[in-house]
């Protein structure tokens, strides 16, 4: 009799030790997808009961025992849970942001020993490809060309990065939690520009690419890309040369002009009057 009492006390102590949280596992899932919460039962165990619960009062959400499986205990999980009665793992479908919390699993084996583990579920939104919008096409500036673009992400709380090929002479960007504006300056207009907007959040990365091919007449390229100074310089030079030539050969020019017009006509300002003859 004494041996039986000692055995029961030992079993009770064993249950008490195993009843504490043996391990805590962190699992990351994404909105709309399926995730499996591991029970981490001892491999040598043959399970006799599985209880998955939430909150501090251990509200059951999925259970299994001799009476069968019940995964419809809570309306917010209805139709979204599946329980593996061999491993004790709980599968959750159509993840939602509000599913992020601690989940407790209480396992009982065929020898009446139990094990309690905890799983912390983190739910995130997957990054989606950002959208690149050309706000302002190549426009003329004093010394080159300016290109203005906007990159937006449907998910907030991301970091923006830009990749530009060929490299711009000067680039600046102004970013918020969901948008980024890029101002790229080129001293000359390239044939095409490859722009990539990258969004990052922790270990997740997404990107989108925009290839802007530029096909414009050569004259327009020069006009648009700061060649107005060269054109103005050439025009001023030609005008100056013409003025110098006119001044240097002004005598010849006047002589040729007089030959065609006549010297008398140059100084005649009124009609010629014949003098009257007087007889004494």
Can you describe what's shown?
The protein has 280 residues and is α+β, with helices and mostly antiparallel strands. The chain folds into 2 domains: 18-124, Immunoglobulin-like; 131-224, Immunoglobulin-like, CATH 2.60.40.10. The chain has helices at 2-19, 218-224, 228-248, 250-261, 263-267; strands at 21-30, 35-37, 47-54, 59-65, 68-70, 81-83, 90-92, 101-109, 114-124, 131-140, 145-152, 159-165, 170-175, 179-186, 192-201, 204-213. It has a 6-stranded mixed sheet. It has a 4-stranded antiparallel sheet with strand order 10-11-14-13, with no helix packed on it. The protein has a 3-stranded antiparallel sheet with strand order 2-7-6, with no helix packed on it. The longest helix has 21 residues, at 228-248. The chain starts with a helix and ends in a 13-residue tail after the last helix. The model is unreliable at 1-19, 214-229 and 266-280 (pLDDT under 50).
